[in-house]
Amino acid sequence: MKRILLSISFSLSVVLISLSFSSYSAQAAARDFFKCKLVEGAKQEAMEKVAADFMKIVRKEKIKGYSMELLWPLYSQDISRGSFYWSGTAPNAAKVAGMEEFWGDNDANKDVRKRFGEIASCESSSIYMVSTIK
Prior knowledge:
Layout: H1 2-22, E1 26-38, H2 44-60, E2 67-71, E3 83-90, H3 93-105, H4 110-119, E4 120-133
Antiparallel strand pairs: 1-3, 1-4, 2-3
């Protein structure tokens, strides 16, 4: 009986220690970045509308676990006026890659792709693993 109580006590201690350290553990995700530039005369608001319309399609298609952001520099030494980053986040790199395929190959967002191409062009893309530290 004493051995069972010690075993339970030890197990509870391990669980409690694990729970206390879990608040500091990292959670991985994946994020893509497209470095883009607005064409002459295009406005930030137009790109924000394109992005919002894309996310409406993502929700309509019931795609879960994907979010996106537009990053507009307040200050940067290495990018010019009108430059921005289109960034999507998903639980893993496969989901990010799937979203890139969805963007390029799906008729549901053909209008969004067309409007994007009328107001911006992208010069580079990259995918990163994200570690969110809690």
